[in-house]
UniProtKB/TrEMBL annotation:
<protein>
    <submittedName>
        <fullName>Glutamate ABC transporter substrate-binding protein</fullName>
    </submittedName>
</protein>
<dbReference type="Pfam" id="PF00497">
    <property type="entry name" value="SBP_bac_3"/>
</dbReference>
<dbReference type="GO" id="GO:0006865">
    <property type="term" value="P:amino acid transport"/>
</dbReference>
<keyword id="KW-0732">Signal</keyword>
<dbReference type="InterPro" id="IPR001638">
    <property type="entry name" value="Solute-binding_3/MltF_N"/>
</dbReference>
<keyword id="KW-0813">Transport</keyword>
<comment type="similarity">
    <text>Belongs to the bacterial solute-binding protein 3 family.</text>
</comment>
<dbReference type="GO" id="GO:0030288">
    <property type="term" value="C:outer membrane-bounded periplasmic space"/>
</dbReference>
<dbReference type="InterPro" id="IPR051455">
    <property type="entry name" value="Bact_solute-bind_prot3"/>
</dbReference>
<dbReference type="GO" id="GO:0005576">
    <property type="term" value="C:extracellular region"/>
</dbReference>
<feature type="signal peptide">
    <location>
        <begin position="1"/>
        <end position="22"/>
    </location>
</feature>
<feature type="domain" description="Solute-binding protein family 3/N-terminal">
    <location>
        <begin position="82"/>
        <end position="307"/>
    </location>
</feature>
<dbReference type="InterPro" id="IPR018313">
    <property type="entry name" value="SBP_3_CS"/>
</dbReference>
Length: 325
């Protein structure tokens, strides 16, 4: 037995020695530097010719923190001692868990914290509930959460089920592929027959199918799920909002976002229940303040500018949607 143990130890030492420094370090190709963010594309109008970006017009003076109007949904949130928000925890730069602090952080999270501060005077009076893309509308319809900030595109179909704030960011869809890919766009025939992942329940999946019907679409419940499929070789690429893909590329030095113009307009809105239009109006006032006092731009510069480039100004709000029962 002693001879067997000694022999095993010798083999282990040999294997360890062979793997300790016999290979040269793998060279990581340099990442292209981000250019200034392109001008946002125009959203697709609804079939009834209404503007999908039109939210509820704010009315009156904004209440002070801790002094929410009696009977309002903001007062209910205040009495509940926390704002409950549905967010992502795996979209780097938008909403992701910091591996050191354990806290969820990002551009979307900053929007939520601003709403909490406006209600409580404390941006940390928040309960963040991690949800997947397909869960965004159901948790608002059953009012499991008060608000959703999860890179959700404002569109006509979703307005039938939920309400949106005014637009707080304009994204656009592109596709991420291996660094050595010679494809130039999602429409490129070189991607025909390739498996491309998009989150289930997202507008990205429909846009991808329309942009290149010859690709093979596959899905995952989360953005990280798509990244795992890509890194394991089960998906050749990922298609989605440029904000999400920037985070994916930052995590994988062997991936790149195709140098194409965005083939969709993805205006982000904070999702809320249609049952509480006064809360939507309040959130619109919060967003206006953030854009006016520089907090919005500071958040963009911190989380998104390093990968997406400089931006001159946040998107302007559009109002005028009638409040209906």
């Amino acid at each position: 037995m002693k001879k067997l143990i000694a022999a095993s130890a010798a083999v282990l030492m040999t294997v360890t020695a062979c793997g300790s420094g016999a290979y040269d370090a793998t060279e990581i190709p340099p990442k292209p530097q981000p250019k200034a963010a392109a001008a946002p594309a125009a959203p697709v109008p609804c079939t009834d010719k209404t503007n999908p970006l039109a939210s509820y017009t704010p009315e009156g003076a904004m209440p002070q923190p801790g002094a929410m109007p009696a009977g309002s949904y903001m007062k209910k949130i205040f009495d509940n001692k926390r704002l409950i928000a549905g967010v992502s925890a795996d979209s780097l730069h938008l909403g992701s868990r910091n591996p050191i602090s354990g806290q969820i952080e990002g551009f979307d999270i900053d929007m939520i914290k601003a709403v909490a501060k406006a209600i409580f005077g404390n941006e940390n009076a928040v309960e963040l509930r991690v949800i997947s893309s397909p869960q965004r509308i159901p948790v608002l319809k059953d009012q499991t959460v008060d608000i959703v900030a999860r890179n959700m595109t404002i569109n006509c179909a979703r307005w039938k089920d939920i309400a949106f704030s005014a637009e707080y960011y304009r994204s656009g869809q592109k596709t991420l592929v291996p660094l050595d890919s010679t494809a130039k766009s999602t429409k490129d025939p070189k991607l025909d027959g390739q498996t491309i992942c998009a989150p289930a329940g997202s507008t990205s999946l429909d846009n991808l199918k329309a942009e290149n019907p010859n690709i093979i679409p596959i899905t995952a419940d989360t953005d990280t799920g798509c990244l795992v499929l890509f890194q394991s070789g089960k998906a050749y690429g990922i298609s989605g909002d440029d904000t999400v893909l920037a985070g994916d590329a930052a995590q994988d030095p062997y991936a790149k976002v195709l140098p194409e113009k965005a083939f969709s307009a993805e205006p982000y809105g904070l999702g809320m229940s249609k049952a509480h239009p006064e809360f939507v109006q309040f959130v619109n006032q919060v967003l206006e303040q953030m854009k006016a006092d520089g907090r919005w731009m500071a958040s963009y510069n911190k989380w998104l500018a390093p990968d997406l480039g400089d931006l001159k100004a946040p998107p302007a709000p559009v109002y005028g949607r009638p409040i209906t029962p």
